[in-house]
User: What shape does this take?
Amino acid sequence: MTKNSPENTEKKRSLNFLEQIIEKDLAEGKNEKRVHTRFPPEPNGYLHIGHAKSICLNFGLAEKYKGLTNLRFDDTNPVKEDVEYVDSIKEDIKWLGFDWEEREYYASDYFDQLYEWAIKLIKDGKAYVDELDQEDFAKNYRGTVNTPGKNSPYRNRPMEENLDLFERMKNGEFPDGSKVLRAKIDMASPNMLMRDPALYRIKHATHHRTGDKWCIYPMYDYAHGQSDYIEGITHSICTLEFDIHRPLYDWLIEQIVDTEYRPHQYEFARLNLSYTIMSKRKLLKLVEEKYVSGWNDPRMPTISGFRRRGYTPESIRYFADKVGVAKRDNVIDVALLEHSIREDLNKIAQRVMAVLDPVKLVIDNYPENETEEIDAVNNPEDESMGKRKVPFSKELYIERKDFIEDPPRKFFRLAPDREVRLRYAYIIKCVSVEKDEDGKITTIHCTYDPDTKSGSGKPQRKVKGTIHWVSAEHAVNAEIRLYDRLFLKEDPNKAEEGKDFTSNLNPDSLNITHGKIEPFVEGAKPDDKFQFERTGYFCVDKDSKPGKLLFNRTVPLRDSWAKRNK
Ligand code: ATP
Ligand code: MG
Assistant: This one.
């Protein structure tokens, strides 16, 4: 193959921009031809689908270029962080199918080193202790995008004084907010972040790992790049809003390097999903104010929520891949995520018949006390999953909405004097209905045609509708949770004036029904996945117990949402 053969250019074109950068770096022999990425969550909440995108990207690139990926907890803000979050993050990354082996790090492990480098900055005349309070600095010194800032009166204090004050900050002599350590860069820089950014702040708070050892904590910008450097990261991938931080990232690295090696920051567009909120602060509000049952509520866009909802790791990885890597912000249609899980479950899910809203159906001419074992296919997409027997008897349950007494045109299911096929079984005909005093149908009476059994080999007449059913005597009861999207608005962040995003919550995001399911599901265990024929994909909830089965709807078979909102 020549260099410019179609195959070659075709392959080049399909590389995303990060792959192009990496391939160029490798070709130029940068950083000893290493590819080392990291995923740096702050343990202040559970991971969401946006993080999943970042995880797949960082681990995926390292895998592709035979590199490494670190898991680094960016735990520099003791007030909001917690071990519960650390544990959940690890569980979620493992579940997604990625492994960081021993490469688990904590920014807090570098506090000593970061402190030493801060002293070096002071000694080099590149940092000073500022006593202006934050508000004063922001209002009166930092300037604006159009006007330069002016120097803090503390900017030129002698190095010894800075060293002494910084040490005393560390020793806990000063209250929160009374002093900060600032980098001495350029108060007139067009980039506001370069106008003497804070590197350390005082926070008398107990840290989940370092306890009370520290009462000064490094700021994100200072901790992040230096941590990348300590770990030998080559490609530090973050989301677009950090592009203006890059000059500061580079400046801070330049103050400490003593080799050719440099980590570099690259930015890509964060994942935004329609009908979904992804700020941890907002997700925390939903949890704390009990709009949902917890971080792993099946309606939450968290990885643990999707897991409980019945999503597979494969479907999320497939989705992350389809979304690709963009350089500009955009919004991905949540229908793509739903498509990803449908595709996967279609291949793997065991089929069963389940009636979500049951009404009794009696076959008047079927023998009393007889049970037939009807053959049913476990998964038409996968022959190796085989067949099962479904009990059939005189009394069945069918879906209430599969019968209409006075059917509109184009309704091809059951109605008076009409025929339908019972899936895998016989053709039946409705002969009468019983109602209660409110006019609600209590029993549908039918007759069946014994010559019409599916798979009997006999010539069959065609009927327009096929409906699912469950034998009343053999049915298993289950609580079924019908989940829908958590938000009604495509962009839930946009609320009417005076209201916040919670005003866009979908009041019907959860409907609970008590259904009847064929006995096959009796021993089903948490996380088992099924297609309930004609209704959707469901999984067994973690709180399900034998005798008290709980199912969560993962997705309906078809996108009812799109139809409703046409
Ligand atoms: P949030 O704004 O929701 O609190 P965050 O960016 O503060 O998110 P971190 O824990 O700092 O959360 O994120 C860890 C990594 O995940 C970062 O590298 C961040 O860029 C990435 N990340 C976070 N949200 C998204 C997203 N929506 N799409 C892609 N990557 C994301
Ligand atoms: Mg962050």
